[in-house]
Design goal:
336 residues, Nucleotidyltransferase, domain 5, 3 domains, 5-stranded mixed beta sheet, elongated
């Protein structure tokens, strides 16, 4: 705890009068441990002045740090090496590493969120969608079945990073095996607030056309609707992929009395909570390090079935927040 000079002076004055550290602490001037430390420093140095911390002096002043931050915010794509060169012109001789540390102190990190490009039409459609459903509660969203396709790679890392010490670069525990042409398995799945629904693994070289999609809806979606909702009304969500928008699909869904949520805006994975479900599933599968296609497929099915209803419910509960954030950001991406 940092204490001001006046407080330290009062503590030492009381100490000189014979007060113990406990007596001084009873006056609630400072914590007892702080009082004993001040008394100890006074006995050793004979002064109430706090010694300056040892160590290498800071290379930049607060004003120079603010200048660095301003330079970075003017062009967020500038590298730390280029920033160090610009900083030298302001009289600060610092390395790119020092630049990164200063920016980190100000909460600026060099990470780009990878999201699909949003066109003006995308932004407009996202706003139309969010305004249409802005008053929906989590209970309303609980009546929606979300769906999507997703790829799984053998030896995939799912964006995971490992923390290691120096010298552990090639230790087996910290090495992620890769192959030149990793096998990719595609799956289709759906879920709602009631839990995960059907998940099916696509056969190799499957053409994702309208015939395939109608088969998926008939064999996978219909059983999920019956199991989770029975005769109760629900809505089905799917994105604007060409096979989803085919006339034969629209007609078939109408014949099955399946209402569609939407129209769904393009390039909007942040609006679909199943994207978060895919991330959870991929982390769980990758953690078990499958070594061949059969094991990968078995783990995908196993871990999908193990996802709890609570996880599904929490993802559905996030929908009002997603809608509100996109509206606040005028159609731009939300954090999900």
């Amino acid at each position: 705890m940092v204490t001001c000079k006046e407080t330290r002076a009062v503590i030492i004055a009381l100490h000189k009068k014979g007060f113990t550290g406990k007596d001084i602490a009873a006056r609630k001037i400072a914590p007892e441990s702080t009082i004993y430390r001040i008394i100890k420093n006074f006995k050793e140095s004979g002064s109430i002045v706090v010694k300056k911390a040892s160590g290498r002096p800071r290379k930049s002043s607060k004003r120079q740090d603010r200048l660095l931050k301003l330079i970075q915010l003017q062009d967020r794509g500038t590298t730390s090496t280029a920033l160090a060169q610009e900083w030298r012109q302001a009289g600060v001789s610092a390395s790119a590493r020092t630049v990164r540390r200063r920016l980190l102190e100000d909460g600026l990190v060099s990470r780009a969120a990878k999201k699909p490009l949003l066109s003006r039409k995308n932004i407009r459609d996202r706003l139309i969608f969010c305004k249409r459903y802005r008053d929906w509660t989590a209970e309303d969203w609980g009546k929606v079945i979300f769906s999507d396709e997703s790829p799984f790679q053998l030896f995939g890392a799912s964006g995971k990073k490992l923390v290691r010490r120096r010298g552990e670069h090639y230790h087996q525990s910290f090495v992620m095996p890769t192959v030149k042409h990793p096998e990719t398995i595609h799956v289709w799945g759906c879920f709602s607030a009631k839990g995960v629904g059907s998940l099916t693994i696509l056969s190799r070289n499957t053409a994702m056309d309208k015939e395939w999609y109608q088969h998926i809806l008939r064999e996978q979606l219909l059983p999920t609707i019956q199991e989770q909702f029975g005769d109760d009304q629900c809505l089905f969500q799917h994105d604007g992929a060409p096979c989803h928008k085919a006339k034969v699909i629209t007609k078939w869904l109408g014949e099955q009395n399946i209402a569609i949520l939407g129209p769904w805006p393009g390039n909007s994975p942040d609006l679909n909570p199943i994207e978060n479900l895919w991330s959870i599933l991929k982390r769980r599968v990758d953690k078990q390090k499958p070594t061949n296609s059969d094991k990968l497929q078995a783990l995908i099915m196993q871990e999908w079935a193990a996802i709890s209803q609570d996880v599904a419910q929490k993802l559905i509960d996030s929908m009002p927040g997603r809608i509100a954030e996109i509206l606040k950001k005028e159609g731009q991406y939300c954090k999900y």
